[in-house]
Amino acid sequence: MYEFDWSSIPGALPFLWAGMKTTLEITALAVAVGIVWGTLLAIMRMSGIRLLSWFAAGYVNLFRSIPLVMVLLWFFLIVPALMESVFSIPRTSDTRLASAMVAFALFEAAYYAEIIRAGIQSVHKGQMGAALALGMSYGQAMRLVVLPQAFRNMVPLLLTQGIILFQDTSLVYVSSLADFFGAAYKVGDRDGRLVELLLFAGAVYFLICFSASLLVKRFQKKVIA
Amino acid sequence: MISIRKVSKHYGSFQVLTDCSTDVQKGEVIVVCGPSGSGKSTLIKCVNGLEPFQQGEILVNGISVGDPKTNLSKLRAHVGMVFQNFELFPHMSVTDNLAIAQIKVLGRGREEAVDRGLKLLDRVGLLAQADKFPGQLSGGQQQRVAIARALAMDPICMLFDEPTSALDPEMVNEVLDVMVGLALGGMTMMVVTHEMGFARRVAHRVIFMDQGRIVEDAPKEAFFGTPRSERAQQFLSKILHH
Ligand SMILES: Nc1ncnc2c1ncn2[C@@H]1O[C@H](COP(=O)(O)OP(=O)(O)O)[C@@H](O)[C@H]1O
Ligand SMILES: [Mg+2]
Hints:
The structure holds two protein chains of two kinds.
Chain A: H1 8-46, H2 50-64, H3 68-87, H4 93-122, H5 125-133, H6 138-168, H7 180-191, H8 194-224
Chain B: E1 2-11, E2 14-24, E3 29-33, H1 40-47, E4 55-60, E5 63-64, H2 72-76, E6 79-82, H3 94-104, H4 110-123, H5 139-151, E7 157-161, H6 169-184, E8 189-192, H7 196-202, E9 205-210, E10 213-219, H8 220-225, H9 230-240
Parallel strand pairs in B: 3-8, 3-9, 6-7, 7-8
Antiparallel strand pairs in B: 1-2, 1-4, 4-5, 9-10
Helix pairs in contact in B: 3-4, 3-5, 4-5, 5-6
Bound molecules: adenosine-5'-diphosphate (ADP) and magnesium ion (MG).
């Protein structure tokens, strides 16, 4: 029978916390950039301008049809090399972090674009007409009237997507970047206590994601009420 | 003020408007009626360019709506429009609904915009609701706010698209009263409605549409006296007898 030994965890907590901070950083940046870029993609896709809507549709379909882990690998190979050759920035863990952030942001934008497009379409069409009838430009009508309502309807979905992303960030282990999962793996590997560390990491992921989704559910009830 | 000349519009092969022409003088109140699907909404939305049209010309205060060089936003800012479903902005308070376009479109300061908005809110009898959200108001109240919102832009004319047909019967009159007040105050109005009581009281002319055509365009007295077309007669007897 396997003997559990949790003793290597307390001493490793600062290192694990540093990993968690990396995880949170990647998540936050990918969510923020993903929503902004996703909104632009959604607007492009719905615009009457063919070139833009083709570009946006192509982008969304491309990223949604490729496994995330491959996108990450490409970016780990391409972005640091680019940074090195174009800006002569040496390859460090910072460039790895930067390429992870870029990859997640671009990937998530494709998913956010679809959520946001559905959100915009859920706003009653007459709202745009009323805004235009008051003399607003298309941009003003979008920004002041349509998008605020769209986002209010979408908050639960956007947060849920953020929770999924939080878990997906663990894929950066392919670049041996020490996010929370990577940090736990390293500690477990060093001390020969992989089982304990991965159980611990799993429990932390579960606690955070489960309580976050409870919060989303409560929020959802409030929006509907 | 509004001049509609031989306007035609089609969606693909479906002809929505055929050769529609009429003029609305300054201070005139025109009621547009006709069976559902006859193109009333489409025609009125062509006037402020919310719907494009393929043939003909519409001039509002001398400015051509169909001309691609026309700044439509600038034109619309001074053409008030009231919709069947009110279309207040649900995420903003009544006060913000009244102020937002004044601030963002006319460039008024917030204080001036709120001032003007509240004055008009008072005029439609809803000053006490200034801090509420549209969802907290009855349909009749929402429509009165929507009228105040349009008036806050100092419009040169007002377009109404069935402003009372989404309302419970007991709320119709509170909205019609506001509109009658506007008409008696000399506002130029083009009103799509089946409220023939309103037409009798304040309209100067009545237009009857059928299948995308203006079938009848007559002074009120003539229209209610003896409509020339059979379609208009049938339509009138139907809506007057229920
Ligand atoms: N976007 C559209 N595409 C195709 N047909 C439309 C569209 N909008 C309106 N129509 C058609 O145009 C006709 C006139 O519509 P409308 O102007 O709304 O009539 P009314 O307001 O008199 O009821 C209707 O037959 C309607 O089905
Ligand atoms: Mg209609």
